[in-house]
Amino acid sequence: MLKRLQLSSEAEFSDLLSLYEEAFPSSERKPVAVLRRMLAVEQYYFLLATENEVTVGFAIVRVLSGGTAALLEYMAVAPSQRRRGIGGQIVLAAARAVNAPPVTLLLEVESDNVKSPDQSLRTKRKHFYRALGALELRNLSWIMPPVIATLPPAMEMMVLAPAVSTIRREELRQWLVNIYVDVYGQSADDPRIDVMLRELPEEVELI
Predict the structure, then answer these.
(1) Where are the alpha helices (DSSP H) in the chain?
(2) Which residues span the domain enclosing 91?
(3) Is residue 48, in this structure, part of any structural domain at all?
């Protein structure tokens, strides 16, 4: 069962928080106070997966300004519940919750194109999303703004958009601007956006 968390659901928020802190490194975690503010924003969906009243996973999704895309900001499954297909169910249910499609669901994933101790795990995560139909944006070097003082790991952007083979660069630009502003509190004219886009063609291929 997947349900949307409400502001008054303190016990369920605590369950989500425990899993959030266990699943993500500190360099990728927003402070708890920030999560609480996010929960109060209508465009944020905090989705909790439960079985027999026990929390087994969660997703946090932000519908971006303009309403044509949403960012799956966080998703995790309790360690004891993995390899049961729950993660895939959560991602697809999160997509339905924000009306994707036609809304395009964007996914941040740790890059497996750089050497790291957990490189094989990163590759498995990308394969997980690919199995759900997600594709990568060819030649987009996603620059994730830091959420705390520590720099985040190298990240990539994937797209869950069935029956779509390319994304217009200008549409992608607007999505990146909205992510920077809506999710990370950055400026709409942040120079990193141009850096990400300047080598891309008018139609960006999904691969």
Answers:
(1) 10-23, 32-39, 86-97, 119-131, 169-178, 191-197
(2) 61-205
(3) no
CB neighbour burial string for 70-81, b if at least 16 within 10 angstroms, e if fewer: bbbbbbbbbeeb
Residue 80 lies in a domain: yes
CATH number at residue 143: 3.40.630
pTM over 0.85: yes
Does residue 66 fall inside a structural domain?
A: yes
- Tell me the Ramachandran region of residue 53: left when phi exceeds 0, alpha when psi lies from -120 to 50, beta otherwise: left
Residue-wise pLDDT tens for the chain (207 aa)? 889 998 888 999 999 999 999 999 999 999 999 999 999 999 999 999 999 888 999 999 999 999 999 999 999 999 988 888 999 999 999 999 999 889 999 999 988 777 777 777 788 889 999 999 999 999 999 999 999 878 888 889 999 998 899 999 999 999 999 999 999 999 999 999 999 999 999 999 999
